[in-house]
Amino acid sequence: MGQQPPERRREVRRRVFLKGKVVLPNTTMSADCTIRDLSETGARIAVNPDTIAADPYLIVVKDGVVHASTTAWQTQDQVGLTFHATEHLNTAITPPHLRLVHRLWVELMPR
């Protein structure tokens, strides 16, 4: 058996299978995604690559968390994201720049 390549990430990502939403900043454009790996500093998502920009927001629906991110790498159907800021959407006051993101999250929550 061959050796595993060295890990380049700062943190090990845990395998997950979570519903997510990619939102482009300052627009109403968004796309559904599946979060495959997740850590405090990044994620691997499955999404149509034509729908993602260089600096998307990633909503982790179950956790009510939004990550401001940049695209670290991209293949035909998967994208690696690096997180730069994380905010919780389930707080009493939503920051003005996240009002659209918050509205999308509320629509995605199970009733």
Question: What do you see in this structure?
Answer:
The chain is mainly beta and 111 residues long. It has one domain: Thrombin, subunit H (Beta Barrel), CATH 2.40.10.220. The chain is built from 1 helix and 6 strands. Strands 1-2-3-6-5-4 form a 6-stranded antiparallel barrel. The radius of gyration is 14 Å and the shape is globular. The N terminus is likely disordered.
Write the layout of secondary structure elements.
Layout: E1 14-23, E2 30-38, E3 42-46, E4 57-60, E5 65-74, E6 78-88, H1 99-108
Antiparallel strand pairs: 1-2, 1-4, 2-3, 3-6, 4-5, 5-6
What's the gist of this structure?
The protein has one domain: predicted glycosyltransferase like domains (Thrombin, subunit H). It contains one helix and six strands.
**Strand order of the biggest β-sheet:** 1-2-3-6-5-4
Second rung of CATH, namely the architecture: Beta Barrel
Helix-residue proportion: under 10%
Instruction: Categorize the overall geometry.
Output: globular
Largest sheet: 6 strands, antiparallel, barrel
Might you state the CATH topology name?
Thrombin, subunit H
Q: How confident overall, as mean pLDDT?
A: 84
Number of strands: 6
Q: End-to-end distance, in Å?
A: 49 Å
In sequence order, what are the helices and strands, one letter per element?
A: EEEEEEH
In the CATH scheme, the class would be Mainly Beta
Low-confidence stretches: 1-5
Whole-number radius of gyration? 14 Å
